[in-house]
Amino acid sequence: MGKLLENLGSLPLGFGGAAISGEGGGYGFGKISEDHAIGLLKEAKDRGVKLFDTAPIYGFGMSEQRIGKAFQKNRDEVFIVSKSGVTWHENKRVDMTNDPLVTQKMLEQSLRDLQTDYIDLYMIHWPDERVDIRRPMEVLSKAKDQGKIKHIGLCNTFEEDLDKAMEVDRIEAIQCQMNLFEPEVVERLFPYLNKHEISFMSWGTLDKGILTKRVDEKRTFDKDDCRSWAPWWKQMDNKPKFEKLKKIWPLIEEHGHSPVELAIGFNLSHPECSMVLCGARNEEQLDGVLNAMANLPKPALIEEVLEIVNEDTSKK
Question: CA 303, CA 301: separation in Å to the nearest integer?
Answer without folding.
Answer: 5
